[in-house]
Every structure is written in structure tokens, then in C-alpha cells.
Amino acid sequence: MRRSTLTTVLVLTLAAALAGAAPAQEQAPPSAAAEPTRPAPPPAESPSVATQQVSLEQSIQAVFVTKFPFFVEWPQRTFAAAQAPFRLCLLGDAPFPGDIEEVASKRGVNGRVLEISHPGDLVQARQCQVLFVGSSETGRVAEILSALEGAAVLTVSPADRFTQAGGMIGFVRWRGRVGFEINTDAARRADLSISSQLLKLAVTGGER
To answer: Nearest 5°: phi and psi at 132?
Structure first.
């Protein structure tokens, strides 16, 4: 069975290929009664490796966010005009503005221009087709989702337990990789139809 491009992204490992050799242990000087050599402590993780892992994870999330719309159907009433842009909005500390701008500039969504915007408030957020909720908004998730009730907005976030709180797609760590959970009930209430292809790629609670 053919897999979508999204599958290829999902299987990307987050482990950085930067494993260096451990520093050699110092040799004890020659002596008739040399002390036994103590094993060297394990090397600490390089800050640069950790930083690159986080950067890679954020880049993968950016690709996911721009691909999700191809697996979701919005009601026609969502768009004010036939040529209206498809609005992907970032709320809070979206950690990948550079990545997402670059990806967005290379594609549209179902014949519409993909527009990245930053809503100033939750009233404006109701005009988005996709709303990425940054981790900085974790404490406001309930407020944000309540403000979006009745609006056909696909909500996506890396916030902990996002789908359990009523969000639609939540990023999770899955077997050392970036995965995502989907709340189909929340999507259905917003009149959004999610493709079975995307549902098959989602992580379930028992798989984490």
C-alpha cells in the first residue's frame, strides 16, 4: 500500500547523527603499586546535540502543520470568497516561524494561497482554518477552545494532553519521534472531516 509523504516525515528519527567517540581514559603512570584505573564517567550530552534535536523536532512539526490541511475537508461556508486564502494561524510562542514561512511559500492548499498569520485575539482566531497553539498558551487551552466553539478551525498544538482537553491534533513524543494524536469528536463538532489516511497515522493512547 502506498504511503503518503506524511508517512515519510513521521518516520524521521529525532536522534541526531552526531555521536562522537568518548574521550580516552587517562592511563595511570607506571608504578609497582599503581592504583586501579577508575572508569571514566559517561560523557554528558553536548548542548549542541540537544539543541539540534529540538530544532529538528520543531522543523518536523512545521512540515506536519502545513500538510495536515491536505487531509482535512472544511465546509464551503468557511471561505468568504472563491479566491480567499487558506489561513494558517500561529498563536503564542510558535517555535518555528522561519520553517513554516519557508514551507508555506512553496505550496497552496486546494488551489488557495496558503497565508501565515498571527491573530491578535481569539475573535480573529475564529477566522483561521488552522490554528497552531504554542506551548506558551498551555494555561489558556480551555479558554482558547471555548472561544473557537462553532468555528470550523482545526486546532493543533504540542501542549500536553491537548486532545484530551478538546483540541483536535496534539503533537506527542512517540518512540523517540514526533507523532500526533487526533480527537475526531472535536473535529466532527467543528464540521471538519479528517481523512482516514491521516487517522491511520495517528498515535493512540496505547501506543505511547
So the answer is: -90, 120
